[in-house]
Each structure stands twice: as C-alpha cells, then as structure tokens.
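ping. complex inputs:
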Amino acid sequence: MKAKYIPLVAALVSAFAFASAQAQTPAPAASAPTVAYSPANPGPGWYKHLVNLDFVKKQAAIPKVDGVMLIDARPTARKYDIGHIPTAVNIPDTNFDKLAPTMLPKDKATLLVFYCEGYDCMLSHSSAAKAEKLGYTNVRVFAEGFPGWIAGGNLHAVSVAYIKKLIDEKAPMTLIDSRPKARKYDLGHIPTAINIPDTQFDSLAPKMLPADKAAPLYFYCEGVTCVLSNDSALKAIKLGYTNVKVVPEGYPAWEKAYGPGPTASAAAASPGAAATPAAKAPAIEPGKESGSIAVASFERIFKEAPDSVFLIDVRDPKEFEAGTFKGAINMPLNTLEKSLDKLPTGKPIIFFCGKGARSGEAHDMVKLHKPEMKTVFLDADIKWAKDGTFTIKGN
Amino acid sequence: MKSSKYLPVAALIALMGASFAAQAYDADWKRGRLYYRSVCTACHTASPIGGINPSARTKAEWSSYLMLDKHAKGKETVSKFYSKEYRASIKATNKTAEKFADVPDKELAEDVKAFLLKGAKDGDAPATCS
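pong. complex structure:
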C-alpha cells in the first residue's frame, strides 16, 4: 500500500518544489534583474571593440590628433551642442546613412571612435556596426560615453551653435577669446566675446573675469588645432571657476556658420552701424579721474550696448525714483557695503550718482573689498528730466 | 668719545629724516573717505547723535577740530578712532576697519583729514553723507 503512494508523493513534492522555485524566480519581462553592462560585461548588441577613457583622452587631445575621428552619435541640439568631447564631430545615429558618406574620412583605415550617452546608450554601438559595414577597418566604441568623459574630470566642450543660441537668448555668460589681440581678436571674433589672450591670462583674468566663481565661462580660440582656449580654461579652473567650458571649433567654425564676427576697426569706424552684439559693445575708456569712465565712452555704451554693462545708481531711493538711466538698478551707497555680495556679476559695473562723488566712493569701496570685480564710475554732473532725458557734464 | 661727539648730529639727521618721511606721505583722501563713511558715520547718523557732513564745517573748523583732538566734548580723543587698537576692536563687524588694520595711525589720520578738507564747506568738493 505504501509503495503505491510513493510515486504520488514524489510527484507532489516535485510539483511543490517546482512551484516554489517558480515563485522565487522573477517574471522574465516585467522584473528582469538589472544587469550592469560595462566593458567587462558587454550588453547585447554592443560593438566588439571597446576603448577606455585613457585611450580616448589621447585621441581627444588638442591640437587635434591626425588619423583619428571621434564621433558623437547622439542627437545634435539636445545633446551634442550642449556638451561633447573636445574635437568630436557629430553624426547622430539616426542620420548616419545620410551624413556618413560626406562626414566620415575617405581613408577607411582611419581610427573611428564612436560614443554616446554611456552604458545604456546603444547609438554608438549601432553607428560603429554601420561604419564597419561601410568598410572601415579601425572602428572602436567608447562605451562610457560623454558621462564617463565628464566624470573623469575632463573639459566640457560645446558647439558654436550653442554659443549662438546663448547669445541670441542673451543668456548670462562670459565668452572669452583666448587668441592674441591685434593679430586675431581685433580682426574678427565671436560677438560678445571679451579678449583675454592666453599669454596674458594671469594678469588680465582677475580684472576681466566675473567675481562669481560659479559664473559660466566659455573659452575659444582658433579651432581644434589651437590649444590656447584649453590652456586658459584649465587656468580658470585653477582659479576656482566651477562652470568652465570650451568651444574647440572656435572662431573658424563660427565664421563658417554665421559669417565674420565684429572687428575692432569696424567697431571704431562705425559703431552705430554695428550688426552684432559685440560690435555694439564698445570698450570702456577711462576718464580723467582714476577708476572713472570717460563721459563720451559712457554715452556710447549707453546708446549702443546698454546690455553690455550693469548700471548701478548709488543715490537714495527717492532720487532714483525721480529719474535715472533706463535699465539702471538702485543700490544706495549707504547700504552698499553690506550688499557687496549682492552685486551683479558677469559684466562690468558702471556706478553713477548725481555728481560723481558717491559713485566714486562706491567704486573705491568695491575695489577695497572685491578687487576682482570690474567696476568704473561716472565722474560727472548728471541731471534727469521727468521725460526721461538727461544731461551729463563731466567733472 | 668720538661717537658721543657726533650723537647730537646723528639725532638731528634722524629727526630730519623722520620729518621728511612724515612730509613725504601723500594723503589719500579717497581712503580717508572710505574710512570716514565706514567708521565715523556708522555712529554719526542723523539720530540720535546727529550726522556730521564734511560740508557742515569749513576747512579751518575741521583743522581746528582735528588739532584739538577732542571727541564727545573732550571725553575722549578723536585720534582714538584712527588707532590700530580701535580698528582691531571693531574689525569683527566693520569690514573697512579690518581692511585697514595695518595702516599706520598717522597715515589714516592724514587721509581722513584730507577728505574732510576737500569735502568742507569751502573745500574743493563739498561733501555730504548722502
């Protein structure tokens, strides 16, 4: 009798054990275990030849390395423009078939390194496979992608299209042309850019860069063969700036995409006819009194490029309300010392008042406490009419 | 013996040197202005003590006031407020005093005097505090 039940019991035990095992095994699709793919554990569909960060750093060096093409396979506007590995070109995987024939090098032995958005991104693997099909023999994928590049503490590059967008949106930023002044910057530069030649960085940066170390700085020079912007960017980081980026394609790419930028001679010859924001931003010319701006220089800036500076009225609120320059903000001198940390940054400040005394004191006060800030004062007798007009008479 | 013979001469030369050095200091009225606003007008507000616009007095009146060196109707000296000790005592709450911590007392006194004379009623640029 007992033996009769043995198969049944065995079947029941076996069924229970199976059911139990099933219960402990997650359902395949809905809750599949998360697999952390990496070069050591490549995911399905990953390209077979992978390279690491150290390898890519050597290929992304500036001046650009010959015989190498770094390719960002991500979408242009949403990803590449706002951040990519220096020297990389952009061939979005979705447009690979269309763009590859014209953008990839003719030499099929050229080293092609594709990357995208990290381990979960398949775009670079997909593009690499397509490139191999086209006959390229030296194809690699940097699976860590742009996130891995940034996590490795490397410079963050943006495209000139992104700079154009920032300029058009009047976004707060400091764009720095690291090239020599007379030979390069004066002959044409990206609108709104200030000029801090890399060779003069140490002396000019403290005066020209914003005091706020978190302010966005963008450095450029003469394209991917030019190392000046990279060098200056690294110096800025050493000074404590935390939001430093480079525009490796630099002025040549700007000129190609948007035409020649403003020149020093054009701005001087016909400042009123300037077509670009930088051309509308004449330089601050010093006045007679130390730290002051010449009245003519102030009038030119106020007329042509008021957005290129901050105008701060240091008179009392009642005086301010009775009439001031359009766009000016009020920071009364009596309260300025306690408000020094609230001073706007990113552009030069022009202090003014009614006679030039309080504005001069405001300038001296900022120089004493925040010498890194770029400030001047209008040493003049100024009168505002109710209709918004004004007269300025230099002291 | 010889050295003691020349002592008075050396002392005279030293005195002259000190005198020239004192005369050589070119007062910085702008620095005086900053100190005046930050330290003097911190207490001398319209109330309760009363403001002290530089232009409220003539140059002669300011010179006389500073020479007499009497503050608060003679209860203390004016020069006390230029002293390093005073600056040290307020530096925790006064950024300008902290910045000027090492400026010699006499220089700071000259700076403030230069500002007061410039901003006096009959000065080059009569100054108010507002």
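The radius of gyration of chain A is 30 Å.
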